[in-house]
Each structure stands twice: as C-alpha cells, then as structure tokens.
Amino acid sequence: MDFRQEFITTIHDFDADLHYLENRLMSLRESSPMALLIPSLYEELERPALTKIKQHLKDCHYINCVNVCLYAETTEQYCHAVEFFSELPQEVNVIWTNGLKVKELINKLSARNLDLSNYAGKGWAVWLGLGLSSLKARIIALHDADIVTFDRSLVAKLFYPVVEPEFGIAYNKAYYTRLGLETRAMNGRAVRLFVAPLLATLEDVLGRNAYLQYLRSYRYPLAGEFALTSELAVNLRIPCDWGLEVGLLAEVYRNAAPKRISQVDLGFFDHKHKEVGDNPKQGLQKMCTEILASILRTLTETESVVFSEGHQMALQVKFRRVAQDLIRQYFVDATCNGIPYDRHLEEMTIENFEKVIPAAFDRYLKEPVASRIPDWTRALAVMPNLRELLQLAVEQDMAEARERNAKS
Asked: Which of 93, 238, 244, 357 could form a disulfide with 373 if both were Cys (CB 3.0 to 4.6 A apart)?
C-alpha cells in the first residue's frame, strides 16, 4: 500500500470510515463553525452536477453555512439561484458577485483609495466568499460546482484535517485520480502533460530549491478543492487569472509552515473539460501560459531567481524530453489497467504546451508583478465593518429575491 509521505502531509484513502468523520465533525461543529464555499456561474444550475451536489449537501449536517458565490447576468437568474439553494438545511448565502449591491460596496472602498472594481472571474468570487465565510466560520472549505462524481465524503475529507484540533493543519488541498467517468480515459492533461514535466524540468535547470520542492509535493497542484482556517483565509492575496490554483499555493507557502499543510485523496474525480486550444491565448494553452508565468514570478519573489533568455531555451529543450518520458510511463500504466491511451494525441498535446513557454516568459517579463486582489486584512484596515456590510448586502439581495419568487 502507498504510505509514502511528501514535504507536506499526505492523507491517503485507505477506505476511511465516513460515519466516523461526520460524527467527529458534528462534535466539533460548535467550537469550530464550518462554512462551505461554492463559486459558480449561473449556467451550472442548469447542469446535472450541481443538482447532485445539492442533494448530497443536505446530509452534511455539520456544515454551519453554505456560501454560493454566483455570477448571474440578470435578476431573474439570481432569483432562480436563491430558490434553487433554498432546499438546503444549512444557512445559505447566495452572493451575487456582479450584483448592484456588491458593486456599491466596492465603490465605497474605492472612495477610500482601495480600488477593487476591476477584478472579476473565479478569483473575485473566491475573494468575496472567503471574506464572508470568515465572518462566522473558523474553518472554510471550497469546491467547484461542476463535479460530476461528487458525493458527501468529499466535503468531510476536506474539512476534517483542518477541523481536528490535534492535527494543527491550517490548509488541506485535494488530490485525486482524473479518470473519465464514462470513457475511463486519462484526463487532467494540464497537470499530467504540462505542470508535472514543467516542475521536473525547472528543478533540473535551476537545481533544488525550497519552493519547487514544495510545489512538487502536491500530487495534483491544480485541484480547486481545499479547506483552510479563517485566519489563513484573510491573509491570502487571491490571483485573478488561470493561475489561480498555483497562485494560491504560493500564498499558502508565504503564510503557513509546511508542517501545517496537508493534501487528501478524494478518489476518482471528473468534471467538465477544456479544449487544448490552437494558440497560447486559447483553452488549456492559455491556462498553462498563466500557470507558468505565475510560477516564474513566485520563484523570483520567494527564491530570488532571476530568469534569462538562456533559462527559456533550456526549459523548452528539456521540457519536451521530460514530457515524452512521462508519456511512455503513462502508456504502460494505462495499458496495464485496460485504459484507452492515444500516444499520438498526447504527443501533439505536449507539442502545443511547449509553445506556451516563450509566451509565458514574455508575459513574465512584461508583467513581473502578479495581479492579485489585496488580502482581506488590508481591506478590513480600510473598512473594518466590510464583512458585516457584505453580509447585509447579501441578505437584502436574497430577501428581494424571495419576495419576487413569492409573487411569481
């Protein structure tokens, strides 16, 4: 069995007793209130995954609060979302991330010389959700709204390591097997065919350093699911691009000791997939460009690495060789498990990913400082009652939505 540990604590799936975890979480519910954060586009409400998630969450009685960070184009969409989540037994806050009341609140911050008006996307949703969640909860967990393979054990496994006081864990990140639910195909291309060979290549080119050792300890560094303490949450600067996940890992690295970080196996995992794209401005290529640019910035910030044109050339040459070696290994692994594997398609994918390396270096050189939302401690220094005002805005939005729903 796999008992191997990493630079950070690795929690394996040895058929854990879900009832034990949930009972323990129930016993800690009062001393360590828990909030679940779900960033979502309105479109997810029309897909089966979120309906399944909602049904499973009904049995997660240890969760004190569910905060849904929703991007909705119209009042009708927002009202539908409020009705959709009204079935949950927990306290529910549907934050209209691009709604008028949130915008008015952000304008008040701008008037005090903290301008957050240009931020958008998932990073903005996460920032709002972490702030609101930290108002009442001691522990916050986050997962996406498109998880096809969701069941309630996922939430318990995310929460428990951070909630259990004996562990001293401040941040717990998911890892999983990205195997297609219907096709049984190896998914997770951005990690398998870009991030994994990239980190190995960077370590080969730069030599061992603490940050690369830290990143390589995560078995799935692009996982969007994690749990953390509210104290850590308010000290994170949230990235607002496709480098969100690795950017968050950089923030955790800055704010938490490795002994307080863990990762947990959530088993098999599937959700919707992106196209590779035709150039570094599309699809997975765009994502990988921003991921690499984020890693380069963090290596400069934390390890004082100064990159040159020679680094770019070495990285491109070595990346393909390392990635091709991995493809051979994936082929053996897949074949022995009866998993369909298209080596030619995988080779084409790494050739596309190789193209993002010069694009990422160009982005790094032109924008050496990452675009991250200031942490909540700074926002609260500007407006100490900001979280309470955000809670009030959400309550008013939801009250108006319920009133409209009752009339329709």
From this structure: 238
Q: What is the DSSP letter of 265?
A: E
CB 96 within 8 A of CB 70: yes
Which DSSP symbol is given to 147?
B
Structure tokens at 116: 């957050």
Q: What is the pLDDT of residue 399?
A: 98
Rounded Cα distance, 320 and 179, in Å = 24
DSSP H or E stretch at residue 203:
helix 196-206
For the chain, give the mean pLDDT: 95
Per-residue pLDDT tens digits for 59-90: 999 999 999 999 999 999 999 999 999 999 99
**Nearest-angstrom CA–CA distance, 383 and 403:** 30
Residue 247 exposure: Cα atoms within 13 Å on the Cβ side: 24
CB 36 within 8 A of CB 95: no
Whole-model pTM over 0.85: yes
> What's residue 273's pLDDT?
74
CA 77 – CA 280 distance, rounded (Å): 33
Q: Where are the alpha helices (DSSP H) in 9-144?
A: 18-27, 48-57, 75-85, 100-110, 121-136
Contact status, residue 83 vs residue 398, Cβ threshold 8 Å: no
Count the alpha carbons within 13 Å of 125 in the hemisphere toward its beta carbon: 25
The torsion of the CA quartet 303, 306, 307, 309, rounded to 10 degrees, works out to -160
Tokens of 91: 């306290």
**pLDDT band, residue 295 (cuts 50/70/90):** very high
Q: In the numeric block, which tokens belong to residue 238?
A: 């949230």
**Up-side HSE of residue 264: CA atoms within 13 Å toward CB?**
23
Residue range 192-222, pLDDT digits in tens: 999 999 999 999 999 999 999 999 999 999 9
**In angstroms, rounded to a whole number, what is the distance separating the alpha carbons of residues 79 and 89?**
18
Give percent above pLDDT 90 in the chain. Answer: 90
C-alpha Rg value of the chain to the nearest Å: 21
Give the three-state DSSP class for 316.
helix
Helix (H) or strand (E) segment spanning residue 217: helix 210-217
Q: Maximum Cα–Cα distance for the chain, whole Å?
A: 66
